[in-house]
């Protein structure tokens, strides 16, 4: 969040992650971070919806020695402020909140001093918690290509219990991500009937909601050689609330997966719609990002936005869900999930996996691609 509008989407996604922001701030000597929520974020999803849950525990992935992974010990404390606190934070600095947001939007943001001092304290109790990924393998039918693996993923966790909303404390996670897991299982059932040439791994990850922790763990310590993972197809929170004619394949423009996905979708009569909310950089906010950082080409399939029902605006339904029901108890089975469209998305998911699994060549990053140049390996970069 917060990138200037002139940033290309790839740079916006990479640099907007908390991981990269923390890395850059620590390298420049920061000892703490105060995050100020901008008006665009507030308009999309009001602060008050999520704030009641911010006292609940966070989680960190630890390595084999028990030390936190991607730790930034120089950053001693963090705080987050709602949009309305901007004037208080900036008081006496010579910069108004309006000027700050204008500089952010235009890409002219500059360093300036704040007038006051902040005293921050962050008491913590640390407990060790274990949670499991769930993994299955379907051996490939080709003796040679069977040593390579197509990875299908979806996260199995949600938020569990949280602050009460209209008296309800159970955060069900029907669309996010029980529906994604159901689609993963249906794809596995279909692929099992006729395995592709390459092997297929079905990974249900834990702790996605806590920072993609299960996916990052598997990418750090896979059960197969990392260079045998040829592609990741991820399924997360398909918002299917009306009959849909399309799907949203986030990230296909980065690799040769684009040709495969487009070919399969055309065969199935499914239109492909570009990401309708590119400013939210979801390409780095779901499990596929752990595998991208490990050099594996990936695509994230989302439900779609084009309703076939007359007079129904599928994009408006998506916005309404994200603004009112995402990460809320109301993400439950009272949502009007359109099951035939979910079945079509499951078919697309397994057909893409089959296309990757049967192809003579493994997918490769596009020449000069932002993520491919940073994370790609000799096996995945375009020759």
| Silhouette | globular
Estimated radius of gyration: 22 Å
Assembly state (oligomeric): single chain
The residue ranges in which pLDDT falls below 50 over 5 or more consecutive positions are none
C-alpha end-to-end distance: 34 Å
State the strand order across the main sheet.
3-7-4-8-11-9-10
Number of helices: 13
Element layout with pairings:
Elements: H1 9-16, H2 18-27, E1 32-36, H3 39-44, H4 47-50, E2 77-81, H5 86-90, H6 97-106, E3 134-138, E4 149-155, E5 160-165, E6 168-171, H7 174-193, E7 199-205, H8 213-220, E8 229-235, E9 246-250, H9 257-268, E10 271-272, H10 288-293, E11 298-302, H11 314-324, H12 339-358, H13 370-375
Parallel strand pairs: 1-2, 4-7, 4-8, 8-11, 9-10
Antiparallel strand pairs: 3-7, 5-6, 9-11
Helix pairs in contact: 7-12, 9-12
Describe the structure concisely.
This protein has 383 residues and is α/β, with parallel strands linked by helices. The chain has helices at residues 9-16, 18-27, 39-44, 47-50, 86-90, 97-106, 174-193, 213-220, 257-268, 288-293, 314-324, 339-358, 370-375; strands spanning 32-36, 77-81, 134-138, 149-155, 160-165, 168-171, 199-205, 229-235, 246-250, 271-272, 298-302. Helix 7 crosses helix 12 and helix 9 (257-268) crosses helix 12.
What does this structure look like?
The chain is an alpha/beta fold and 383 residues long. Helix content is 33%, strand content 15%. The chain contains 13 helices and eleven strands. Strand 5 and strand 6 form a beta hairpin. The longest helix has 20 residues, at 174-193. It is globular.
């Amino acid at each position: 969040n917060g990138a200037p509008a002139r940033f290309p989407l790839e740079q916006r996604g990479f640099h907007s992650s908390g991981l990269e922001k923390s890395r850059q701030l620590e390298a420049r000597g920061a000892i703490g971070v105060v995050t100020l929520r901008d008006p665009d974020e507030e308009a999309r999803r009001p602060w008050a919806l999520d704030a009641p849950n911010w006292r609940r525990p966070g989680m960190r992935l630890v390595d084999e020695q028990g030390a936190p992974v991607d730790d930034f010990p120089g950053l001693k404390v963090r705080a987050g402020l709602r949009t309305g606190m901007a004037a208080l934070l900036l008081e006496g600095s010579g910069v108004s909140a309006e000027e700050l947001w204008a500089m952010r939007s235009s890409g002219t943001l500059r360093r300036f001093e704040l007038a006051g001092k902040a005293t921050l304290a962050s008491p913590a109790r640390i407990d060790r918690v274990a949670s499991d990924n769930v993994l299955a393998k379907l051996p490939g039918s080709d003796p040679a290509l069977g040593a390579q693996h197509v990875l299908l993923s979806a996260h199995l966790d949600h938020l569990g219990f949280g602050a009460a909303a209209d008296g309800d404390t159970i955060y069900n996670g029907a669309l996010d991500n029980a529906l994604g897991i159901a689609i993963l299982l249906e794809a596995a059932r279909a692929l099992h009937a006729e395995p592709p040439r390459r092997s297929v791994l079905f990974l249900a990850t834990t702790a996605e909601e806590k920072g993609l922790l299960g996916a990052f763990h598997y990418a750090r310590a896979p059960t197969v050689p990392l260079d045998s993972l040829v592609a990741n197809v991820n399924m997360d929170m398909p918002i299917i609330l009306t009959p849909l004619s399309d799907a949203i394949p986030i990230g296909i423009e980065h690799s040769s997966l684009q040709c495969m996905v487009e070919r399969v979708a055309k065969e199935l009569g499914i239109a492909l719609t570009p990401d309708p909310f590119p400013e939210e950089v979801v390409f780095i906010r779901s499990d596929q990002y752990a595998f991208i950082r490990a050099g594996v080409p990936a695509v994230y399939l989302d439900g779609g936005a084009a309703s076939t029902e007359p007079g129904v605006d599928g994009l408006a339904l998506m916005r309404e869900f994200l603004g009112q029901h995402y990460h809320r108890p109301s993400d439950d089975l009272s949502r009007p999930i359109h099951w035939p469209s979910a079945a079509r998305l499951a078919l697309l998911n397994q057909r893409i996996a089959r296309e990757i699994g049967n192809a003579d060549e493994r997918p490769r990053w596009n020449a000069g691609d932002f993520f491919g140049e940073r994370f790609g390996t000799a096996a995945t970069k375009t020759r």
